[in-house]
Design brief:
Fumarase C, Chain B, domain 1, mainly alpha, Ribonucleotide Reductase Protein R1, domain 1, two-stranded parallel ribbon, Fumarase C, Chain A, domain 2, elongated, binds arginine
Length: 462
């Protein structure tokens, strides 16, 4: 049992049970919104004064009280009172404690329902901008890797089976393409976050003569929400952000998975520097790729957060329901995790050394230029299906004899098809195979260099 007085205490005879207070409180996690909550309140207060709803004396005292609270929170001199349910009530209570009666006027024409939406939008708007910046940094790291490895040939895989030789640079730029889409999606999502909900009040708007456009302009929102009921119950922008984060994590997780496989002794394509790996507490010889493994693992957490917000929203009756408070932890966790992963992945890219010889050696194995020989036959006028069949028989022959395509004699080639000539040897080399893919989007050195040039030009224009 407690007897703390609540801002909404008027209609209640009994005070709130302690365990109910604890159960319903969000202060432990929503206190991170303090800066946005105060920023919104300052503008709301200025608007109330401008509209003559409060006096200019009250305005001054509210704003100086809020400034004071902000400073105390930032310098860690603020103690959240035990009965403050959430950040909105904590700030309001502190304000009333400090400036008295005028503090009680701040909440005029406003509800926590539109206030919390405003805070979340202000917060996420900033975080999205930060995330877009971090994506830009990671994109830059991938371009650096591509430039460093422009001559590195490696086996390209499908089904994790050797398929065709590719440039390692082409591989890095593939990830960069994914990150471009991730950035675009976040910019789109930013538009829908960037809408000002205050004035929707509890659900129906307010009867007081407030000025919503003024609030929007002062807080740098290009538009205001058009329906008060939608505004207080909408969390689409949060679900959308977490979905975008999920795709971004999925991309990082795939990159990490490759690095994990490639750093195994069996592949030995890449070495992750000691400073970015960890040891085993029992096996002295071990060097483990924990950083990429954790990024891969944390992707699961973000998917969980997406399912959480979608499930919280499903079937909620209009309009605000307390369930909506459950939007915060999944969102905050997503933002923190995502930023952490983007930071460390960018740093890790600078700590990779590629085993170029091994990659090249492996690229030549596994009959990876079989398609090139088929394409050579096509140029000679053989229908592709027949060419496929001929080369298939050559590969079977090589497997049986333990040979590779490069070592076959002209006589051997001709035993499969009379029309073979010396030109075929150009088609079995991995360098030529890579450079033959000289069409836009292909892996030839010329095309990859062209793409890098394009990217650098875009970067300069920015
Ligand atoms: N802490 C609440 C939340 O995060 C703020 C809104 C409370 N509104 C209410 N009607 N109880 O959703």
């Amino acid at each position: 049992m407690t007897t703390h007085k609540k801002p909404w205490g008027g209609r209640f005879k009994d005070s709130t049970e302690r365990q109910v207070e604890e159960f319903t409180a969000s202060i432990n996690f929503d206190k991170r919104l303090y800066r946005y909550d105060i920023k919104g309140s300052v503008v709301h207060c200025k608007m109330l004064a401008k509209q003559g709803i409060i006096s200019s004396g009250e305005e001054k005292s509210i704003i100086s009280g809020l400034d004071n609270i902000l400073e105390d929170i930032e310098t860690e001199n603020f103690s959240y009172s035990v009965d403050s349910e959430d950040i909105h009530m904590a700030v309001e209570k502190a304000l009333i404690d400090r400036i008295g009666e005028a503090g009680g006027k701040l909440h005029t024409g406003r509800s926590r329902n539109d206030q919390v939406s405003l805070d979340m939008r202000l917060y996420l708007r900033d975080e999205v901008t930060t995330v877009i910046g971090l994506i830009g940094i990671l994109k830059g790291c991938l371009v650096e890797l591509a430039k460093n490895e422009i001559d590195t040939i490696m086996p390209g895989y499908t089904h994790l089976q050797k398929a065709q030789p590719i440039l390692l640079a082409h591989y890095f730029l593939a990830y960069r393409e994914m990150l471009i889409r991730d950035g675009d999606r976040l910019k789109e999502c930013h538009k829908r976050i960037n809408v000002m909900p205050l004035g929707s009040a509890a659900l129906a708007g307010t009867g007081l003569p407030i000025d919503r456009e003024y609030v929007a302009e002062s807080l740098d929102f290009p538009e205001i929400t058009k329906n008060s009921m939608d505004a207080v119950s909408d969390r689409d922008f949060i679900a959308e952000f977490i979905f975008n984060a999920s795709l971004l994590m999925m991309h990082m997780s795939r990159f990490c998975e490759d690095l994990i496989i490639w750093s195994s002794e069996e592949f030995d394509f890449v070495r992750i520097s000691d400073s970015f790996t960890t040891g085993s507490s029992i096996m002295p010889q071990k060097k483990n790729p924990d950083v990429p493994e954790l990024i891969r693992g944390k992707t699961g957490r973000i998917y969980g957060n997406l399912v959480a917000i979608l499930t919280v929203m499903k079937g909620l009756p209009m309009t605000y329901d307390r369930d909506l408070q459950e939007d915060k932890e999944p969102l905050f966790d997503t933002v923190d995790t995502l930023k952490g992963c983007l930071h460390i992945l960018a740093a890790m890219t600078k700590n990779l050394t590629f085993n170029r010889e091994k990659m090249l050696k492996e690229a030549a194995k596994g009959f990876s230029t079989a398609t090139d020989i088929a394409e050579y036959l096509v140029i000679k006028g053989v229908p592709f299906r027949d060419a496929h069949e001929i080369v298939g028989r050559i590969v079977a022959y090589c497997i049986e004899k333990g040979r590779d395509l490069q070592s076959l004699t002209m006589e051997e080639f001709r035993s499969f098809y009379e029309g073979f000539d010396n030109l075929v040897y150009d088609f079995v080399s991995v360098e030529n195979s890579v450079n033959a893919r000289n069409i836009p989007g292909g892996t030839s050195k010329e095309m990859v260099l062209k793409r890098i040039e394009e990217i650098e030009k875009e970067m300069q224009e920015k």
